[in-house]
Amino acid sequence: MSFKDHILSSFIALENEVETNNYVHKLRGEALKDFENLGIPQRKEEAYKYTSLKSLFNKDYSLFPKKETSIDYGDIKKYLIHQIDAYRIIFIDGIYSSHLSQTTHDKFDVCLMSSALNNPKYASVIENYYNKLATKDGLTSLNAAFAKEGAYIHIGKNIAVEKPIEIVYFSTGNEAEMMTQPRNLVVVGENSQVQVIERHQSLSDNAVLTNCVTEIYAAKRALVDWYKIQNDKLSASLIDHTFAEQKDNSEVRIHTFSFGGKITRNNLSFYQRGEHCNSVLNGVTIIEGKQHVDHSTLVHHTAPNCESFQEYKQIFDERAVGVFNGKVLVDKIAQKINAYQQNNNILVSDTSTINAKPQLEIFADDVRCSHGCTIGQLDDEALFYMQARGIPKKEARALLMFAFANSVLETVKIPEIKSRITKLIATKLGVEIGFDL
Amino acid sequence: MSKYTEEQLEKELQNKEYEYGFYTEMESDTIPIGLSEDVIRIISAKKNEPQWMLDWRLQAYRVFIEMEEPEWANVNYDKPDLQAISYYSAPNSKPKYDSLDEVDPELLETFKKLGISIDEQKKLAGVAMDIVIDSVSVATTFKETLAEKGIIFCPISEAIQDHPELVKKHLGTVVPQKDNYYAALNSAVFSDGSFCYIPKGVKCPMELSTYFRINEGGTGQFERTLVVADEGSFVSYLEGCTAPSRDENQLHAAVVELIAMDDAEIKYSTVQNWYPGNAEGKGGVFNFVTKRGICEKNAKISWTQVETGSAVTWKYPSCILKGDNSVGEFYSIAVTNNYQQADTGTKMIHLGKNTKSTIISKGISAGKSQNSYRGLVKIGPRATNARNFSQCDSLLMGNECGAHTFPYIENSNSTSKVEHEATTSKIGEDQIFYCNQRGIDTEKAIALIVNGFSKEVLNKLPMEFAVEAQKLLEISLEGSVG
User: Fold this and answer.
1) What does the pLDDT average to over A389-411?
2) ipTM
3) pTM value?
4) Taking every annotated instance into account, which residue ranges of this chain make up the domain SUF system FeS cluster assembly SufBD N-terminal (chain A) (predicted)?
């Protein structure tokens, strides 16, 4: 049975489980049709020219876990930023785990997508925001057809959420091959602030494929700070689609740290729909083995006087393959834009590959757009300098690589995350240096 | 260096509605429109070609009919109806002339309007020209001077007759018949073009030059250029283009192949000023060209282009850096105005060790035009110590035009260094103000700034071309300042 047939037959099973007489289910039906027409993206499509999803979709995934699994806090503690107090929304095999989570409805909603979808109280928010921003391609449609769970965050006006929100999706590996379709919706009101940490983590070596869609709406003067930590098992793959819409004077920052996973594809799309917005897209990628990380970014400037800033630092070893496809689109009315894009890569081995395609499409004349892309190596003289002073080669290399990635790390606002990332980098580079010099 | 004065510019600006837009009334030998195997047989027979050439054309045609017209470029146009084109058109006063006196006086008049008085060229510029007018070469100058050095510079149709071994050996080795849709079409129906062979160790003493024009209405121009520089040789080749004003779109699908053997160097410069269509975007030439060169050990190929004409330009002069230590360069200025569209750039394929490439691309868009840079830098796993530097700058004039960059970088070698930079900006009001303050009016200030913006590329052109190119830039952008 082909993947497509499998999906179509599973949809009937889904219909038995969820409420079918509502707005969202109508969307599901339409999305399924779109998926049928569009299918899985192929390499002959420009957007997936350098990333083949073939090896991901030849498996017989189960789309729904057969039974609920519970896990102890001790088992997952190391995957959380446990040093700090945080709201937590934790899912196990796509099912919400209430005893591990800490949600709230007090001043704002940090809760579940399933309750938001089914509770009439949230109907107006869902109808105004749900699936309104996500663009239609085969995979986002697939997600829309099957999505029923995820994080739902709705912050009203003038609220600074006092602690970060951690969203973690665990896969237990109870199924041999599991595919999940998480769906997050984040609506941040005027003058409000929120910090989010997102992570997808597999707990076994069974194959996992996550096809995640997140929609973020930032109202006027809102501030969203988002951290994606991707350090999954080598058996797990992630296709992430994140869409952000910004109104006047808002700022959305998304940091992506990619260290793990078999194939990771990050689609980040920003739509600036108000003046004086600022969008920040930062990333650090350090991979080796046969790992594959693909960053596809889009910043669409549709209003004047905005800024966007992208910085991706990437290091590839062994047979790793990296892709960076950054696109900046400036509409005719979006004058006085300042768009900046920087992509620096280090190839450590001769068998690693980077394919970069930094694109600018500009229709306005009074703009400042620049992009830079470099591919190079570590400076031999700097290495020698350190070795001459008694620093072993391995550590010297690690220090240089850390320095290379540091400009991105410096923009991380939560100290605990920063120290967690530095530790991850140290482990990744096989050294025991704290880097917090 | 320029003899060209401001008064001249002013005069030119007044009647700048395509100055080369005239039509020479000459009897032409045109075959009926349409494309089929028979047409190819007729072309081949008319040119009295050997059997192997006909077979090669037919092979290309069979590949061609299996192919589909590509659509990935960032351009919009009505696809040319290939069945509505006549694939062969030759000025009627054949055969060859022994001296200039025998040449059709009207043809000479045409050349005069183009500013290429053959006598003058001979005396002043020292340029040997192979003039292609509607598919057939009618005048070749300086041939004897070149022959003394063993340099072969002649129409490719002549080369097929006189030097079949060279043509057979090299034709299609850089751009194979099945390379792409328009290259396949060209391979099947190419009418004429230039062939150039520089023997071992010879430095070509003068700039070789070809002038392409499209004259007869409704004919496509399918030239084929083959330049072979044998070991240790050097050649600088100029190609300039002008075409008469026409309303229907004319197709130009040329193929240029450069072969630089060990230690050889080829410098290929183009000034393209074909009819861009009028201010409403009507008419104009479709310029779909495949240009590619291959470098053996220590060889160097340098492409320089100034693109100001054509309604739709779609071309990527490329270098395959096959040999160790070979060098590829690409310097380009693409100017689009009114409704022109350009999707141009280069490909640098690094295969050998220590290969270097430089890409400098300057795009200027004005009016309602769209200007795209699309380039590929590919570094193979064996190309150790490869080095690339790319810079793409775009200048936008007016708020209805667009500038786009699509750079592809594929690197699989850890010892290579690749740098890519791109900027997009407009002419600063402060810059114009500065000029105005010093008594330079806005129009001239723009010309000055554009010239400065393009300097890096203009400097790479041979002198007589640089003058013409500078002039072209100014004319192309006239009236684009709002």
Assistant:
1) 92
2) 0.80
3) 0.83
4) 21-167
